[in-house]
Amino acid sequence: MMTRNTLRSVLLATALSHPAAALALPDGEGRETVEAVCTACHGVNLIERSSGYSRDDWRFLTSTMIDLSGDPEMEDGILDYLAENFPPGDNREATPVSGPLTIRFEEWMVPTLGQRSRDPVESPDGGIWWVGQWKDILGRIDPETGAMEEFDLPAGARPHSVNIGPDGAAWYTGNRNATMGRFDPATGEITEYSMPDEASRDPHTAEFDADGILWFSLQGSNMIGRLDPETGEVRTIASPREGSRPYGVKIGANGTVWVACNGANCLLRLDPETMEVSEIPLPDAGTTVRRLDIDEDGIIWWVNSGLGRLGRYDPATGDIQEWASPSGPDSHPYAIAVFDGAVWYNESGVRPDMLVRFDPQTETFQSWPIPSGPVYAGILRHMRTTLDGEALLIHQSGTNHIARVTVERGGPTQ
């Protein structure tokens, strides 16, 4: 818990290190305090880009990020300022779509505040693992009891994602310290695998193939990587498109490695034997692709984050189709997963962050606001299904929530 003196120290230190921060928010009593405390972790642009909240909802939202109970006077000043200047509004309003399905959200708020929990994945024993990117944390939830454990990762790792390997270990991407990491749940031992050169600096998203090889993207380095857990060998290859910023990764049934381009209008296809990378150009300038997934027929589904669309690519024919997302061109689709016979993704550029379902058979949409406790405030950045395919694992990184989504049959629409 932060004491009053600690909070005051954060306020002073942050104000000194962010001399231009006062230019960003509206004038008013409490502005300097808000700027100093909030920018200790994130820019004030996140406040300006919110949909606005009541004072009670601002209280809950800030409580997911920092414990202000040690200084009630400061907390009141912050809440008064936020409620006065950023009340509920229609800024970045989503366009919900009703439909026939009912879904259920089951949520857990992780213990350590401000960690930006993300990328939940299920292990064979039913546990749900996540990483807390901003606090170098690896965590596990027992969904049956709600019990949670957190484990410290090497300082500065800034883990971006986590996968459960064939060996039962939790493998994470050390996005900031240029490593891939292995956490042994039985012993707590952590093994780090360094990148092969200085140019390979930011492991991002990873997936295991059927042979146990771990493939991963390096967004800022413009590369794709390969880690052999048996030998510890790490190899990287550059994307053929300069500035393509490889992001989401998925493995096809035939072993082909598919990678999304977050900086260009393309998908990348990598031959796992030769590590040769080829580019699939996508039609429109302005297209960027955060993530992709592959259905049982080998069709590649991808989010056009730059233009607010859902895309489909058939590797057998080369056919490409796109559909406009319900909330429009600025909706910024982000995470995506094929689940329950449909394509699911989220609209991260609107508020609330919407979970969207697209039925490929009828080409129709349905969507739901993703809760973050009693508010709608987080962002979903990656989602995957449970091992049995019966649920979808999501998160809200802005409020440190992990969630499980199930489809309920025969109930009223929600």
Computed Rg: 21 Å
Order of strands side by side in the largest beta sheet? 1-28-27-26
CATH class (first level) name of the largest domain: Mainly Beta
Helix-and-strand structural type: mainly beta
In whole angstroms, the N-to-C terminal distance is 38 Å
Q: Could you describe the largest sheet, including whether it forms a barrel?
A: 4 strands, antiparallel
Total of helices: 5
What's the CATH superfamily of the largest domain, by name?
Answer: YVTN repeat-like/Quinoprotein amine dehydrogenase
Low-confidence stretches: 10-23
Number of DSSP strands? 28
Estimate nothing, just give the exact number of structural domains. Answer: 2
The averaged pLDDT comes out at 93
The geometry reads as: globular
Strand content bin: 35-45%
CATH T-level fold name of the largest domain? Methylamine Dehydrogenase, Chain H
CATH architecture of the largest domain: 7 Propeller
Approximate helicity band: 10-25%
InterPro entries: Cyt_c-like_dom_sf, Vgb, WD40/YVTN_repeat-like_dom_sf
Signal peptide: 1-24
Keywords: Signal
Protein name: Virginiamycin B lyase
